[in-house]
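DATA SHEET
Item: assembly model
Revision: 1
Owner: S.N.
Input lines:
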Amino acid sequence: MAKPEQQATVTTTVDRLIHEPARLAIMTNLFVVESANATYLLQQTGLTWGNLGSHLIKLEEAGYVDVVKGYNGRKPETTVSLTDKGRDALLGYRGQLLEALAPLAGD
Amino acid sequence: MTMGLTDLKTLERDAFRKFYDDGIFDVYVGTMLITMGVAAVVADRMGSEGLSMLLTLGLAVAITVPLLLWRRHLLRSRLGEFKPGPARRRKISRTRLVLFGSVLLGVLAFAVATIAFQSESSVDVAGLLIPLLWFANSMIVFGAMAYLLDVPRFYVHGVIIGLATPILIWPDVLWDVRVPPWLAFGGPGLVVAAVGFYKLRAFLRDYPVLETEVAADGEA
């Protein structure tokens, strides 16, 4: 089991905005597509509308996602895509996590 | 919340594959085969190829349009919509290329049939070749769809559908046994459509209609 100071190091060196499981799910799902509507993200992540909305606001504020509100016919539709900054951030997060967890593998 | 540890390639593949879990494409293909069987019976009974072709075309339109409209609604309300990434777009383009190639193969089969039937001694050659071309075409089309769209059951569909013409023609050519067209086309068609209906039932059970998005001003 990791010592408390090791745990603290892991959580301080990784991007905590992405580290949250719901936001990580949103980011990874957006990473593999060009864009998706909110219903797609809802289905893929299993979040509720309220949770999805609040996490998207945080990701949008950080510049990680682009949120476009529009209409599909008469129905409101939100389309979300990962920005270049978001893409880089997710790749960076992966590197940070690998680096932070490397000592556990005895490297 | 779904947060399994999975690699991004698998995540993308599974997400894309869901859009073929509805089984409507299977129902569509199966129904088209059954339609071909029905059209063959009509042509046989009424002695009119023209009427048979008209019937096939009419049934095809009557089946295709409502199914496709329903499929669009079904997928949108339960899975949402997405624009695929570059890798998936390349795969979709390749699938279209293969489908175009299969049309060329169909034209080739038609040419072979025409030439073979014109020469007196080659009726059996056509009888042996056309089913082979049909089978090859079916395997190319459905094999490519299975591989490029990551939907493995289409391999099986390729084999089942590919057997329709050999079942119809080879017994007649080799052993003088006539298999009715409704059976040769309808049998495989029924199997594929049944798979589709089974998938559709599972899809309706596993993917409920999601809540409608609400606009900021509260308008649904």
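QC remark: Confidence is low (pLDDT under 50) at residues 1-5, 216-220 of chain B.
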